[in-house]
Design goal:
Blueprint: H1 3-18, H2 24-41, H3 51-60, H4 71-80, H5 91-95, H6 98-101
Helix pairs in contact: 2-4
Pfam families: Pkinase
GO molecular function: ATP binding; protein serine/threonine kinase activity
Keywords: ATP-binding, Nucleotide-binding
Length: about 110
């Protein structure tokens, strides 16, 4: 069995277990949000002592953001870590987010988020 077939099997099992559809791009956005959160806060947003507890926190607990974070950064993190993948921000919108472009001072090249 090839690695790709194994990945598809894992994805199909996950969809069955979670009773949901896999949203690849939205999952990547979530991962970017977790990474950004870790970079600016210094810890993971929903980490617990075990995988089931972490999963429970992801599903059931609100995203906690330190008060001292920039308002724009907080808004971006909330959009990146939106629990509903169908409502999660897209890369095109992230590329134009005021916190990312520093309110217009930095413009990312078109096509970099495709």
């Amino acid at each position: 069995m090839t690695l790709l077939k194994i990945w598809y099997e894992i994805r199909n099992v996950w969809q069955f277990i979670a009773d949901t559809v896999y949203h690849g791009k939205a999952a990547d956005i979530w991962a970017a949000g977790v990474t950004l959160y870790y970079m600016v806060v210094g810890c993971y947003p929903f980490l617990a002592d075990s995988v089931p507890e972490t999963y429970n926190k992801i599903v059931n607990c609100p995203l906690l953001l330190p008060d001292e974070l920039d308002r724009g950064l907080k808004e971006l993190l909330q959009c990146l870590l939106c629990k509903d993948p169908t409502l999660r921000i897209t890369l095109d919108i992230v590329a134009e987010h005021p916190w990312v472009i520093k309110d217009g001072a930095i413009v990312l090249p078109k096509g970099s988020c495709s």
